[in-house]
């Protein structure tokens, strides 16, 4: 017997913080899932080995996958105190539902293709796979409305720069001209907050929601969303901020030199 589930039970980015003091109902089979990492552990047991390996793995030595996660270890929060955070919100969705991807073969793509797409397509245009500041500038000059800083989840070049390391340079280059987004290695609500503090307007999460869907279908995905949302809200309260726009580099200190010269 499956528990009844409603999408309305879970907070989304466009919703404010529930004031009722009651948590959304979680199916019994998911009550032991307390983080996105727990979904990966469950999916490892549930999925056939070849399928799990395809979802979880990167290319060659998985070096880029490790870089994506290790990059988050380079940042510490500097918290603020005596701030009323009872009205904190994660903000509203910023993207259109229309997305264009995989236009032609990668090895034949050039900036002329992007110009052609921009001249032909009247809607919002987002370019994914940006790691170099110069590429971000070029994309914006050709009319891109946004760029996604991404190494494609470590599935292409083994040893590619971690997306989080590339993010500050891209934000510095084009953050005032187009929307900068990021993916790669995000596993916790705290990771999302770090990216926003570094200038990202949106964060994309892939593998954990694949695991959640494999383990429990739609209820699993909804539970994964709720986990990230609640982690964000809890940490925003501890940081003393009410909105993502309050997160700045002044609150996020770096260890070593994670923003080394990349572009």
TrEMBL record:
<dbReference type="Pfam" id="PF01070">
    <property type="entry name" value="FMN_dh"/>
</dbReference>
<comment type="similarity">
    <text>Belongs to the FMN-dependent alpha-hydroxy acid dehydrogenase family.</text>
</comment>
<protein>
    <submittedName>
        <fullName>L-lactate dehydrogenase</fullName>
        <ecNumber>1.1.-.-</ecNumber>
    </submittedName>
</protein>
<dbReference type="GO" id="GO:0009060">
    <property type="term" value="P:aerobic respiration"/>
</dbReference>
<dbReference type="InterPro" id="IPR008259">
    <property type="entry name" value="FMN_hydac_DH_AS"/>
</dbReference>
<keyword id="KW-0288">FMN</keyword>
<dbReference type="InterPro" id="IPR000262">
    <property type="entry name" value="FMN-dep_DH"/>
</dbReference>
<dbReference type="InterPro" id="IPR013785">
    <property type="entry name" value="Aldolase_TIM"/>
</dbReference>
<keyword id="KW-0560">Oxidoreductase</keyword>
<dbReference type="GO" id="GO:0005886">
    <property type="term" value="C:plasma membrane"/>
</dbReference>
<dbReference type="InterPro" id="IPR037396">
    <property type="entry name" value="FMN_HAD"/>
</dbReference>
<feature type="domain" description="FMN hydroxy acid dehydrogenase">
    <location>
        <begin position="1"/>
        <end position="257"/>
    </location>
</feature>
<dbReference type="GO" id="GO:0010181">
    <property type="term" value="F:FMN binding"/>
</dbReference>
<dbReference type="GO" id="GO:0004459">
    <property type="term" value="F:L-lactate dehydrogenase (NAD+) activity"/>
</dbReference>
<dbReference type="InterPro" id="IPR012133">
    <property type="entry name" value="Alpha-hydoxy_acid_DH_FMN"/>
</dbReference>
<keyword id="KW-0285">Flavoprotein</keyword>
């Amino acid at each position: 017997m499956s528990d009844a589930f409603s999408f309305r039970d879970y907070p989304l980015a466009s919703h404010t913080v529930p004031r009722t003091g009651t948590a959304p109902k979680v199916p019994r089979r998911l009550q032991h899932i307390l983080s996105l990492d727990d979904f990966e552990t469950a999916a490892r047991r549930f999925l056939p080995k070849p399928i799990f390996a395809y979802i979880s793995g990167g290319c060659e030595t998985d070096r880029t996958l490790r870089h994506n996660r290790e990059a988050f270890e380079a940042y510490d929060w500097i918290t603020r105190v005596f701030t009323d955070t009872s009205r904190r919100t994660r903000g509203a969705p910023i993207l259109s539902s229309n997305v264009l991807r995989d236009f032609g073969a990668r090895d034949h793509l050039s900036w002329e293709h992007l110009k052609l797409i921009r001249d032909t397509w009247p809607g919002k245009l987002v370019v994914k796979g940006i790691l170099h500041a110069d590429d971000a500038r070029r994309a914006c000059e050709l009319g891109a409305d946004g760029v996604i800083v991404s190494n494609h989840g470590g599935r292409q070049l083994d040893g590619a720069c971690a997306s989080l390391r590339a993010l500050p340079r891209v934000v510095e280059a084009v953050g005032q001209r187009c929307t900068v987004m990021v993916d790669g290695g995000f596993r916790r609500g705290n990771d999302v907050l770090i990216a926003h503090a570094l200038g990202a307007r949106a964060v994309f999460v892939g593998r954990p929601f694949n695991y959640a869907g494999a383990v429990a279908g739609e209820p699993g995905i909804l539970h994964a969303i709720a986990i990230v949302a609640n982690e964000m809200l809890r940490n925003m309260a501890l940081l003393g901020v009410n909105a993502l726009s309050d997160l700045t580099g002044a609150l996020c200190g770096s260890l070593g030199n994670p923003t080394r010269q990349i572009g």
